[in-house]
């Protein structure tokens, strides 16, 4: 299993990014979480197979209609074996 910690900047708040990502994560079969940050970015952790994580990362780079992601900083972190995917409160 693979887990990544991701920060996405650009126009990613107020466009349904987190809630669409939750649907994408469920469809991909990954676990983790996503939340807005006060600086206007979105932060997430995604865990699954290499292919599942890569699929979600590819979606994160595009985002939902109306968003304009500009950068995504991805850091590999240890897998936790967690289940489910949630939208968390703003950090």
UniProtKB/TrEMBL annotation:
UniProt KW Iron-sulfur keyword: no
Highest taxon in the source lineage: Bacteria
Reactions this protein catalyses: an acyl phosphate + H2O = a carboxylate + phosphate + H(+)
InterPro entries: Acylphosphatase, Acylphosphatase-like_dom, Acylphosphatase-like_dom_sf, Acylphosphatase_CS
Residues annotated as transmembrane: none
EC number: 3.6.1.7
Active site: 18, 36
Keyword terms, alphabetized: Hydrolase
One Pfam assignment: Acylphosphatase
Keyword set includes Chaperone: no
Acylphosphatase-like domain ranges (all copies): 3-89
Family named by the database record: Belongs to the acylphosphatase family.
Name this polypeptide is given: acylphosphatase
Organism: Microbacterium rhizosphaerae
């Amino acid at each position: 299993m693979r887990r990544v910690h991701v920060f996405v900047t650009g126009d990613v708040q107020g466009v349904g990014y987190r809630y669409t990502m939750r649907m994408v994560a469920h469809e991909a079969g990954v676990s983790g979480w996503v939340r807005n940050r006060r600086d206007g970015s979105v932060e997430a952790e995604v865990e699954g197979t290499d292919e599942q994580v890569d699929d979600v990362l590819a979606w994160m780079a595009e985002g939902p209609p109306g968003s304009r992601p500009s950068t995504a900083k991805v850091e590999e972190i240890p897998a936790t074996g967690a289940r489910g995917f949630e939208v968390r409160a703003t950090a």
